[in-house]
Each structure stands twice: as C-alpha cells, then as structure tokens.
Amino acid sequence: MDARFTAEQEEIRRTVREVLLKRCGPEEVRAALRTDEGYDGGLWTTFADQLGLPGLALPEAYGGIGCSATELALAGEELGRALAPSPFLATCVVVAPLLLALGTQEQRADLLPRLAGGRATAALAVPGPRLGAVLGLTGDNHGDWAGGGRAGGVQARRADGGWRLYGQVDQVLDGHSAELLLVAAHTGGYARSRTLLFTVRAPADGLTRVRQTALDETRPRARLEMRDVAAELLGPGEETDDVLQALAAAGDTVATVLAAEAVGVAGRALERTVAHVRQREQFGRPIGSFQAVKHRLADVYVRVQAARSAVYYAAWATAHGAHTDPPEERVGGLVLAQALEALRVAAAEGIQLHGGIGFTWEHDAHLSFKRAAGDELLFGPVHRLRSQAADAARLLEDGEVAV
After folding, report:
1. pLDDT score of 329 more than 80
2. Peptide bond before 127: cis, by omega within 30 degrees of 0?
3. Residue 400 confidence class, pLDDT cut points 50, 70, 90
4. pLDDT confidence of 403, banded at 50, 70, 90?
5. Distance of alpha carbon 379 from alpha carbon 89, whole angstroms
6. pTM of structure
7. Residue 326, preceding peptide bond in cis (omega within 30° of 0)
8. Coil, helix or strand for 221?
9. Distance set, CA 351 to CA 52, 100, 367, 377 (Å)
C-alpha cells in the first residue's frame, strides 16, 4: 500500500481549497444559507465549470472525470473545512452512484451528464429519518424501512403504462431544491411488497416540497408530499435485491466522504480554537499557556489526526475495492463513527475554550457544533455505526469475542 497522494490528488485538494478561500468565507456561508436553495449556486457553477467537481467520480463517458472515492474524500475534506453548504453530498456522493449502478443505458445517458455538468442537482428520498440504515451503515438495510407491506412512506402503483407515487417523506437532504428526486417507494401490496427506486423530475404535478428548519443549516432538508406524481422506475427490472445491494455498496463511499467532511470541520475548529487561546488572556497571560488547556487541545489533536488517518485508509480501501470481498471488510461506517466522535469533541472543546462567544451567531464555533450534531442525527448515532460494523465483522458471537 502506497499511502502517498498523487500529484493529481494534491492538485484537487489545493484547487478546491483556493476556490473556497476566495468564495466561501464566514459571511458568504451565512449569505448562502439565506437563499432559497440553501447554498451558493454561483459557487457550485464555478466548481462545475472550472473543476468538474460534480462529475469527479463519474465515468468520462457521462461527462465526468473518472476519479475514485479518494478524490471525493479529499474534496469533501476541503468543503468541510469551509463548512460550505453545497449539493455535493446529496448529488455526487449519494445519488450519482445509484444512477450509475441501477439505471438503464438510456437513463444514465440522460441523467448523469446533467449531474456531472452541474446543470442539475439530485436528492435521495427514503421514508423516515433512516438514511443511515438504508445505506447499511446503522443496520441491516433489508429491515422494515423497505415497507414489508405496511402503510406509510411512499406507495407506487402502475397507471397508464407508467408509475404514480403517493405519500410523504421527511428529512430529505437538499430535497427542496433538487431538480431530480430519487424516491424509494413500496410496490406490490402486502403479499408481494418490495421497495424500488423511482426518478421524479421536479417540479412536478402533485409534488409539494417544504424546506424544514434544521439544526444544521448548512445541510438543508425538506419534506416531500406526493399526490399522484408521475415517476419512472429506475433500472430495467423490479428486483428489490438489486436496489438493496446498490444502496449498501454506495453506503461505504458515502460514509467515507462524510467522515472526510467531518475531519475537515474538526481540523478547522481545532485551528480556530488554538488561535483563540493564544490571544485570550486570564490572570495576565494567554490561556493557551495553561497546562490544562494544552492537555485538552493535545487530546483533540490526537483524535483529529487519528480520524484523518482512518479516513484516508477508508478512501484507499474503497477506491481499490477492498471493501467488497469479503463484505466484512467494509470500513466506512466504523471510520465515520471515529470521525463524528472527533468532530463532536473538537467542536465542544472549541466552544468551551471560546467561552460564551462560541455560541453566538457571529461566531463559527457553533456552526461546527451543529454540524457534528446534525450529521450524527442524520447518519448515526455513533454507537449504532460501531454496532453495525461489529455485526458485519462477526466480532461478537454468542456474546463472546470471535477468535
């Protein structure tokens, strides 16, 4: 294993950071949050036109660059450092791989170039706050989220040679602004219940989207209400197993990139805190000179660096296919748990050492803390990520550690 990044990978990191330094400072972030989309559309266009960021991991045949999860993770780390609100996670990391894995040739040729070129964004709508379970990160994604014949979520039925959707989905990441919705819906009734994915072009007749108040405003979410909405089945067949396998396969990459974002946020929070304790004085000296403060920040530094190292390994393993055979070697969920925990500690220590100003709207420390809490609510919690990783590795059998 060569742990060094290539010159091209370092260039991706450097270029993304330079653009963000120029276009995504604290004031720009807050201005973007007040827009209807919840992100800076001009910045996203810049990323698409100058860097090809939306198509970073898509094949060149569909207008992408053909990179791997490693490049996605490096870009995600830089976006995390700036706390940049963008459709990167929902569009490029979650939906695009599912379209590539499940879509027909016609669907891929129609949809993927639009996403790769930044001309459209996408969102995945699944019932309930269960995105982590759906992606196989916090539980078996063959579980009850798939419906099991029960009411709730979204129902799909055939009509006039097509499909129509009915139901409601809450907590859809970027669901209020995405032009393409990928909706998980139940079909077949009670006897033959299965969950399939459908594409919906927004806006659409019968579709209502309401942006919700979120703890972390840099990750906007929406409630979707569907009443007789026209949809197209994703893929050529109606096999639930294909959908579940594609979701689980995408989950490892999603977890790795999300962990990279968390490491970026944590690293920047630590830098900000170190700069503050060098200036803030008590008893006539900077508080950073107190041994207790040094110890606390040293502990945060070790956590962040350990999480960063784990993220880079997970990106390498995902890019080289080490997570697919055997399936127990998937490491994304475990790395995500470590990164979210490091972010939570870095953000909490930052607020403590900043004092009361850390929770004011004018300061970035509270944004880091809300990102930590918001990501854990959406994709965690940490103990479930670790529990699922242990189950997948068969670490505990009959209550004992497996030999």
Report:
1. no
2. no
3. low
4. very low
5. 12
6. 0.92
7. yes
8. strand
9. 36, 42, 10, 20
DSSP lists the bridge partners of residue 221 as 173, 212
Contact 330, 247 (CB under 8 A): no
The partner residues of 155 in beta bridges, in order of sequence, read 166, 186
Q: Do residues 51 and 16 make contact, with C-beta atoms less than 8 angstroms apart?
A: yes
What secondary structure letter does DSSP report for 1? Answer: -
User: What is the rounded CA–CA span in Å between residue 238 and residue 36?
Assistant: 36
CB-neighbour burial class of residue 284 (10 A; exposed 0-12, middle 13-18, buried 19+): exposed
Hey, CA dihedral for 387, 392, 398, 402, is it positive or negative? negative
Instruction: Write down the pLDDT at residue 327.
Output: 44
Cβ atoms of 125 and 181 within 8 Å: the answer is yes
32-69 CB burial, b ≥16 within 10 A, e <16: bbeeebbbbbebbebbbeebbbbbbbbeeebbbbebbb
The answer, yes or no, to whether the previous bond of 203 is cis (omega within 30 of 0) is yes
